[in-house]
Design brief:
262 residues, mainly alpha, 10 helices, globular
Length: 262
């Protein structure tokens, strides 16, 4: 545990000196501040902000995480020459990369909310956005680490990361619509429900709309979740699956990192 904390502190000090984290935080500050300034209804501003979060955070987290591993190869090789535990090194590097991204998003968004007078009582929707954004940061960083460890070639790893994001953020909804359209004469609700569990971005969207019971904006998968599970159970299931989406890449990443010859 002491080794993990030392690695995290070292990576945090490097990350917070980086201008990228400042730019990342500034982006969310400006996006949130402008949306709240030009939209009198905070609920509509929250919906717009949620759409930005669902696209930007997964993309930045998976690319930044992948590049971080490749750029840290020399450090990893040097560290592995010492009598240290590989699992501790992996966990330290992971949290040293994901925490700054989460802090950058949290600080930029929360400061903008405070400056616009969004209090804890009035900004429960923005609190959910903060939670979803942080969860997506850790999930896609864990996926990025797994990809970077599996693919030794930097170009292949980065390309695969972009493909994963593209499939989950854009293509996935098209696949669901394709299934619903071509099998509309059959009961496909159970199949669509199962498919939606394999997309953390879809789960984050469902969690948001179920949390505020926005029936008009639920979409097909959100409506199915609400029909089969109701709001409360649907929220619990969404959170559970997002936790699983975080744990599985971490476990496979640890296993691959332990066996990989650097």
């Amino acid at each position: 545990m002491e080794l993990i904390s030392k690695i995290i502190k070292f990576e945090l000090s490097n990350a917070f000196r980086s201008k990228w984290i400042l730019v990342y935080s500034l982006f969310f500050f400006l996006a949130t501040y402008l949306l709240l300034s030009f939209e009198s209804d905070s609920g509509k501003a929250a919906l717009s902000m949620m759409n930005i979060v669902l696209i930007v955070i997964p993309l930045v987290s998976i690319i930044f995480g992948t590049m971080f591993v490749y750029n840290s190869i020399d450090f990893i090789r040097m560290a592995l020459c010492q009598p240290i535990d590989r699992n501790s090194l992996f966990i330290g590097l992971f949290f040293g990369n994901s925490i700054p991204l989460a802090v950058g998003f949290f600080s930029g968004t929360s400061i903008a909310c405070i400056l616009n007078g969004i209090t804890l009582a009035l900004g429960s929707n923005f609190l959910l956005i903060l939670g979803v954004g942080i969860a997506l940061t850790f999930i896609f960083t864990s996926i990025a680490f797994l990809i970077a460890i599996i693919f030794s070639d930097k170009t292949k790893g980065l390309g695969f990361s972009i493909i994963i994001w593209l499939v989950l953020a854009v293509v996935y909804d098209g696949i669901i619509l394709f299934i619903v359209y071509f099998f509309r004469d059959y009961p496909v609700e159970n199949a669509v429900l199962a498919i939606s569990l394999f997309n953390p971005i879809d789960l984050a969207r469902i969690l948001f709309v179920l949390g505020f019971d926005i029936s008009a904006l639920m979409g097909y998968t959100g409506a199915i979740f609400n029909k089969f599970f109701g709001s409360s159970l649907g929220i619990i299931l969404s959170i559970t699956m997002m936790v699983i989406w975080f744990i599985i890449p971490i476990l496979f990443g640890l296993k691959s990192f332990y066996k990989k010859d650097f």
